[in-house]
Each structure stands twice: as structure tokens, then as C-alpha cells.
Amino acid sequence: GAGVSQTPSNKVTEKGKYVELRCDPISGHTALYWYRQSLGQGPEFLIYFQGTGAADDSGLPNDRFFAVRPEGSVSTLKIQRTERGDSAVYLCASSPGQRTDTQYFGPGTRLTVL
Amino acid sequence: AQKITQTQPGMFVQEKEAVTLDCTYDTSDPSYGLFWYKQPSSGEMIFLIYQGSYDQQNATEGRYSLNFQKARKSANLVISASQLGDSAMYFCAMREGYSDYGQNFVFGPGTRLSVLP
Description:
A: mainly beta; seven-stranded mixed sheet; B: about 120 residues; mainly beta; six-stranded mixed sheet; four-stranded antiparallel sheet
């Protein structure tokens, strides 16, 4: 079956612009996660969804970052007024149910803010 | 304080030999899980192996095994019979607790493994 997919694979934007990053989880997976990975570092947790609701958004760095999952499947990570420091690879992962399950990752979206 | 420490930024191993990648962790929670992921240059994170804090035996998955030493808080990954395709970044990660809310899932800084022909 299909794995986690993310679009776009690359996004270049200018400082101050708004961007949306999309994640399509594995079919049937109720849990979805967003991470940010800066060059040379491990992934950093941003937000976790169980179904349609954000069960844990403690990793979102500030109120410019927001994520939704309106139908419990596809999720969109939204970044307002982008800054150069937002440049990173944004990874999405999904798991079958509870947060204790193994997470399966997508290929990531590389965001570059000029 | 660092929750996950991987002290080897880079490692080299000869093809067909075994290699151990180190991981130490810090938690006061009695319930936790430890994971290893591989990230090739393509960027995708690939799940390798999982060890629960209450598991009595060390986890094994094919050529991967986890040397779990609970008292020392270490969870080293052992790759046997290295292959050229094993060249990648390897991340150790920890999930604390078993409730569905308010958990931490943290990654270490990673170790870059290069397998030499």
C-alpha cells in the first residue's frame, strides 16, 4: 500500500509570505505528526493529531505556525509571515492509532525562505 | 538537558562487518519506548527497530538488534554484516509514557554511518 506522501517536495518562498505544506497519511492511520528537521539535526516535534483534533501542539514554535486535519486524514501545516529561520525540512508521520505505535514517515517538504 | 545523546557524529565500517551505534537516554518515566530510524540521503525516515522499557529481551529485526542496558540507560543499535546500502544517518528516538496525551517523542542528533567497500 501507499506510504505517507507530502507535497510539495520543495518549496521556495520569500520572507513574509504564507505557505501551506500538505501531508497525506497512510490510509487508516488515525494518528498524524508533524516534525521539523534542520540541517544536521534530528527531527523536532511540532504537533500531533488524533483524528481531527490536535492532541498535542506543544512543539509549535509560535503562533505563526498552525496545522489542521479537518476530516481526520490529510493534514496541512500552515506558516504565516515566514522567516528565514523557518527554512528546514518538514516531516510528516502517521501511525495506526495510539501515540505508542511506531511512526511511519513521509519524504518531507524542504522549505527555503529567502 | 539532552534527552537523547548520540556521541558518534560519524562512523565508518567495512562492508560485511558489524557496527554498533551508540545511544544513551535520559528519563525519569518508568514507561518509555526506544526507536531507531534510518535516514538515507533521499531524506525519508525508515523505522528499523523498537524496544519497550518493560521488554525483557533485546529487540531484533533481521540484521538489526538493539543492545538495551536499562540500568545504564543505553540502547545501542547493532548492525550485523554491513551492506553498502546501510550508509545513512541513524537516529535514536524515545517516547516517554503510554498515555495518549502529553507525551514527548524526541530524537537524538544522529550518527552518519558510511559503509566502505
